[in-house]
Amino acid sequence: QVQLVASGGGLVQPGGSLRLSCVASGSIFPYTMGWYRQAPGKERELVAAITTDGVTKYADSVAGRFTISRDNAANTAYLHADSLKPEDTAVYYCNAGNSRLTVLVASWGQGTQVTVSS
Predict the structure, then answer these.
(1) Which of 35, 65, 96, 100 has the highest local Cβ count within 10 Å?
(2) Which pLDDT does position 2 carry in this prediction?
């Protein structure tokens, strides 16, 4: 089973930016990679995904502000979050799976906390 470790979160002011990293224990080449988030009292939601061909998809709430990318050679996926808003505050997780991420191959790690506040 692939192990994934998310990092790069922190406290940022509204309008600020962060780059999150997701490092895998093995190759991510065969998988679509996804970034998810879970805010207190809410369900975990998919915010961005990138296929093996580099096709990206975003939740409406982050489209135009977040950018997902991948470096297969480094077994790493990234989420660049710009123009952050207080409602982006959540624990961010990454995972890997089939093209639509309906089947995931990794367990949920601890995630990385993103807090947007002045």
Answers:
(1) 35
(2) 86
